[in-house]
């Protein structure tokens, strides 16, 4: 049961980080929803999913101050974003 608990915790953490990345790309880099969807999911038609991730990322960062904690992680993603 411990493995299930740890796996669930890891999945939540990764979801939160992906959501924070979407916020970063949208707010700081002014990327379109379709561009972000293509970069993250490989499909520009998933723009609605990306919008939901952005909303979740904003809620998460405003509730617990995660933006400062995730800043180094997000900066690492910047170097590869937009490359084909």
Q: What would you note in describing this structure?
A:
This protein is mainly alpha-helical and 84 residues long. The chain has one domain. 79% of the residues lie in helices and 0% in strands. It contains 4 helices and no strands. The chain is globular. The mean pLDDT is 83.
Topology:
Layout lengths: L1 H26 L5 H9 L5 H18 L1 H13 L6
Which value, in Å, is the CA radius of gyration? 13 Å
The biggest sheet amounts to: none
Number of strands: 0
Give me the number of helical elements: 4
Distance between the termini: 41 Å
Helix content: over 70%
Element-by-element helix/strand order:
HHHH
List keywords for this structure.
84 residues
How would you summarize what this structure contains?
By secondary structure, this protein is mainly α. It has helices at residues 2-27, 33-41, 47-64, 66-78.
């Amino acid at each position: 049961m411990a493995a299930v608990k740890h796996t669930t915790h890891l999945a939540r953490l990764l979801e939160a980080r992906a959501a924070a990345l979407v916020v970063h790309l949208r707010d700081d880099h002014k990327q379109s929803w379709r561009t972000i969807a293509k970069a993250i999911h490989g499909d520009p038609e998933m723009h609605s999913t990306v919008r939901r991730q952005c909303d979740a990322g904003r809620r998460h960062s405003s509730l617990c101050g995660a933006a400062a904690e995730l800043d180094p992680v997000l900066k690492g993603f910047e170097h590869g974003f937009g490359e084909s």
